[in-house]
Amino acid sequence: MPLRSPSSDIFVYSFCLTPVPYPTKVEKMQNVNDIVALMASPSTSDIALVQKAYDFAQKAHDGHLRNSGEPYFNHLFETAKNLAQIGMGAQTIAAGFLHDSIEDVGVLPETIEKEFGKEVLFLVEGVTKLGSLKYRGVERHVESLRKLFVATSQDVRVIIIKLMDRLHNMKTLEHVREDKRHRIALETLEIYAPVADRLGMGRLKRDLEDHAFPYVLPAEYERTKKLLSERISKNSEPLEKNQNQLRKKLAVEGIREFRTEARIKGLYSLFKKIERKDGDIEKIYDIIAIRIIVPTLPDCYQALGVVHSMWRPLPGKIKDYIAFPKPNGYQSLHTTVFTGDGLIIEVQIRSESMHREAQWGIASHFAYKHQAEGRAKGPAHLVWLQQLLPGRRTATVSTGSNVGKDAFSPSDIPNWIREIAEAQEEVTESDEFLDNLRGDFFSHRVFVFTPKGDVIDLPIDSSPIDFAYAIHSDIGNHIASSKVNGKMVSLDTRLKNGDIVEIDTKKTAKPSEKWLPLVKTSLARGHIKAIIGTKRKEAAE
Questions:
Q1: Which of 35, 169, 207, 427 lies 20 to 30 Å from 324 when distance is taken between CA atoms?
Q2: Structural domains of the chain sorted by starting position, each given as residue range(s) with its CATH number in brackets
Q3: Helices (DSSP H) in 292-429: which residue ranges?
Q4: CB neighbours of 305 closer than 8 A, spacing ≥ 6?
Q5: Would you give the DSSP letter of residue 437?
Q6: Where does the pLDDT of residue 423 fall: very low under 50, low under 70, confident under 90, or very high at 90 and above?
Q7: How far is residue 182's CA from residue 212's CA, in Å, rounded to a whole number?
């Protein structure tokens, strides 16, 4: 919790160097009023809806226990509470209470629709693990993922509910059978944490990864935890001293409202970075960082000037993610500095709105809509999101009096989720679907532009052919040549972040087998194979 200076009211700050232990203990069930208190300006009807869902779920799951022996309703409560904490509306919170009611206790969909409306029913059915009795092992798991992404492609709130459901499940994973524990944890690392990252939900990504890490790679987890503990023990005292100096300097320089906190790198993120640095932890400077959070964007750059007036920046380590946000919308100023006492540390600077978005990504977009109902235009910091989404359209689902606070538009769906839903329809083998998911959507990404400035999201090492198919299948099928940043390039060119790509087409141009080694996306690969198959069939006839 933030601490107020005993000597002054001009600034606030917080300081914590204790890493979050994993796994955590089960939270104690609380009253529904604790959830209502977390909601942003709920209306009377919003409160009534949440209360009704709370009562309904509690009654429906009466006597239903988790593996830990605790009431199953505790899980539903924590899922709903997580949704309220990130700013989701009454419809989504209600669905959080009800998300297991169909599958686990046999509540009829018709009952949910009658009591809560079509929209809540849709969200509940989207999260429900459909077809669970028909599949075994990997097949069952993959089928659930397929249906999850199909549902998400219609309403992104489905995946947000699922992520919060998964978060609480991971906190209590110790009570699950060992073989199942490993599968769930691996699935979390490979699918759900990357989904959270793609949605800009940085805090959730970290929590999911660090809860899964000890179950997937226990030896590596223990080794990384020991290294982190040693680093914290070594640097905590000088870091606190540096933080005190920084606070005083910021106040002297006229930044009258701010808070600072020590940010500790997540264990799994640290493990992966150590791997990239050939096992040398001394090459990693952002294990512990000082974060400065200020009210406005100009304050960010003013604070950066103060930091550089105190400490010498490390060459090449200044990153302006405000002017050039990360593809998932992350905004912050990062600088690595020599503090003069033998310490090299990273300092992160961001506004309060940037901080909220860094924590909760696309969910903060929904929260903004709740707070700014009726405004014609969103804030500047959501431009990134608008670039990655199609034009806004009217919501297809209407629920009467509750529309507005938790209103949904198809434009809230990131394009990559739509692509997953479309791609899975062309894939029959489970292994192929999982390989495509990991390769297409959860590998390192590049973000390139059309000449009109539209953002196209592609896997790393994608070619102009991948770009063409991402625009439209007809463009991909008839690509003749390509330009990157105004220069003619070959079709095997590997695209880089920020490239502007132009495609020229000819009616006579057709895909060939030579294209297959050049493409990285399953979308392009599928269309090329289909054309080749048609050619062979015609030739045989």
A1: 207
A2: 32-215 (1.10.3210.10), 444-540 (3.10.20.30)
A3: 297-310, 352-360, 362-371, 383-388, 415-424
A4: none
A5: I
A6: low
A7: 8
